[in-house]
Amino acid sequence: MNVPRSRTWPIVALGAVTVLACRPAPPVHADWHPDGPAPASDDDDDAPDVAPAHPHAATMHAWFSGVGEVRDALIAGDRDAIARQAQALARTLDDGSFPAAWQPSVDELRSHAHAAAAEPSLDAAASLVAQMADECGACHDALGVVALVEDALPPDDDVPEGTSAAQIMARHGFGATRMWEGMVAPSPRRWIRGTTMFVITPDCAQTQPDEGTHCERTRSLARRAHLVEDRTARTELYGQLLATCADCHAAARPAARQ
Ligand code: HEC
Ligand code: HEC
């Protein structure tokens, strides 16, 4: 094989090392090219200068984990962590390692990150996190790289088993993450995988103290989300769903009780 792998491998390797949240791109990615396999050549020096299929993989994986950290801090209902992670994301977005044409999308993402960092309301921060995922998906859609992003997503077959309180929460985590990937790719399959988890998982009020009606609301939002296909509606429902997680976790935090 005479494709100059040396140009693509470091990118794939960097993504694999720095971003544990993303499944490292399998080797086949490094060989993929929109025009099909590069013509064979007997002489390495004559090998065509094939553009890597994933020129932005390292940047994308950094964004993927950056937005994922903000999402997890939001789910935990931890305002300090949200601010910290959203500021870190804004710095990552600022590093300029993207084509100039992406600037408007990056500006939008950065403004959401700054707003989330400063936002006192968890509900409003949750909506911003959902809007960021939608911004990712909108560009992938527009640039026709949806299948490629779907390929790079982490596996979705490690469904947490069981019905203890912690196991039900782990299933909530699984569902919320799959829905998020469903927006980022965007992938209708991941979205359905995520929303289905809430439909088949027992109501968390069966195992958690639920002073509000968070659990009921989580499930009813997930049920509605399961049925909608429109991206704006998905974004809105996803933000509201994340807010139910954030509100209950914030209330359960020892600091919040004082
Ligand atoms: C303005 C366009 C644009 C935006 C915004 C964007 N992406 Fe991408 N993304 C791309 C392109 C183009 C690819 C195709 C792979 C490449 O070019 O390296 C890609 C690929 C990816 C991949 C697959 C990387 C791989 O292994 O090849 C992931 C994961 C990803 N994006 C995550 C995100 C996340 C998360 C966001 C939002 C925070 C985001 N992207 C926002 C353009 C964008
Ligand atoms: C009615 C309250 C309530 C709701 C609603 C709720 N959780 Fe939880 N969750 C808890 C409690 C209590 C814990 C355990 C103690 C803690 O971490 O504060 C927990 C823990 C977790 C954990 C950590 C589990 C582990 O391995 O320790 C995850 C992940 C999680 N929740 C995800 C979610 C997601 C995602 C949502 C929303 C879709 C959600 N939860 C909604 C109460 C709730």
Low-confidence stretches: 1-44
What small molecules are bound in this structure?
heme C
Q: Helix/strand-derived class? A: mainly alpha
Our count of domains comes out at: 2
Arithmetic mean pLDDT: 83
- Shape annotation: globular
SSE order, one letter for each helix or strand: HHHHHHHHHHHH
Our estimate of the beta-strand percent is under 5%
DSSP strand count: 0
How far apart the termini lie comes to 65 Å
From the alpha carbons, calculate the radius of gyration and give it in angstroms.
20 Å
The biggest sheet amounts to: none
What is the count of DSSP helices, taking H or I runs of 4+ residues?
Answer: 12
Helix content: 55-70%
How is this structure best described in words?
This protein is mainly α and 258 residues long. The protein has two domains: 5-46, no CATH class; 57-257, no CATH class. The chain has helices at residues 9-18, 27-31, 57-75, 79-93, 103-118, 122-143, 146-152, 165-184, 188-200, 214-227, 231-252, 254-257. The radius of gyration is 20 Å and the shape is globular.
